[in-house]
Amino acid sequence: MMKKIKLSMAISIPCILSQLALAENTSETTVSKPNFNLFTSLGVLNIEDKDFDPEAFETELGVKGNIKSNDFKMIYNVKVDLSDAINSRDTGGPDGEADIHVKETNMIFPTSYGTFILAPRAVSGQYRDLYSNVDYFEYNEAHSGNATPSGNTLFAQASEGSDVIAWASPKFYGIKFVAATLSVKEDNHNDLDVKSFRAIYNQGGLNFGVGHVIASKTLTGATKDYKRSAITAGYKFDKIDLGTTYEINTDTFGTAGDYKTLGLAARYYIDDSYSVAAAYYQKDSDIDSKDNKGTVFQVKKQIGKSVSLWAEVANYDITPDNVALGINLSY
Fold first, then answer.
1. What is the percentage of the chain residues whose pLDDT exceeds 70?
2. For the whole model, what pTM was predicted?
3. Which candidate, 73, 160, 222, 275, has a CA 20 to 30 Å from the CA of 309?
4. Burial 271-288 (b: 16+ CB within 10 A, else e)
5. Mind giving me the DSSP string for 252-272?
6. Mind listing the pLDDT tens digit for each residue in 30-57?
7. Are residues 198 and 164 in contact, defined by beta-carbon separation less than 8 angstroms?
8. What are phi and psi of 84, to 5 degrees?
9. Element (H, E) at 127
10. Helix, strand, coil shares of the chain as percentages rounded to 5?
């Protein structure tokens, strides 16, 4: 499998470069005017055993554009999150200038052979495609990693990745296949530290997907590769969204132990403005002290296309319980 993946990446990069050269020689290149975007989520937060606190949950600034000709197209995207810098003094840090988080820096190359992605920083496609069916929330997001606001310990899949090269197949009857590699460490004599694969069906109201991630044992000097599998399903009715995701982690690094996590979620649209959402998560670990479960409830009011108000209440076994109120602005 390793040789096939290396061969695939070796072929894909020259393919992109050859299309660049062909575009220069055969047609005039058009550079579109960049689109600038903003998303900010501000509010107040009360975490169990901590003081009530005004909070910047997310503050993202981004620029996106495309370059194209008759034979070539490239989409570029850069996005930074300032929320850590804004909140830094609250958490004992300095003014926060060093806490600006680059969330995305990528180039996307759509071709007739599929879409190629080069991303030193990227929002995780694995997370987006396999976990969005159970992640409806603003503060109580279901993913793992440093970018998780609530410190949720239920799912292992992170929402972001770095040093990513990926390929997505053209859609066929609503089905697409995606393969990606991440080069996490530069000094472990292993170019492909993490490999991920997923197949997604998304057509009409039905969404179904399966995925698998393999993290090389060379990342930590472990004796076995860490493996994570996930399966998801969701359906959008007229006024109700339903979803579930089941994740299996084996040969995990460190002290986490092997574990499985189930998520169930639903959103009901009361009318064009109001909706309510609820989710249940349960983590079952080989190490009893690592077991966790939680319920989250949200009420949201949409005010036009750009503004929404929301309130969340969450109760967990291990992760601190919380109440969060916020307002989102995007354009």
1. 86
2. 0.85
3. 160
4. eeeebebebebbbebeee
5. -STT--SEEEEEEEEEEE-SS
6. 988 899 999 999 999 999 888 888 999 9
7. no
8. -65, -40
9. helix 125-131
10. 15, 55, 30
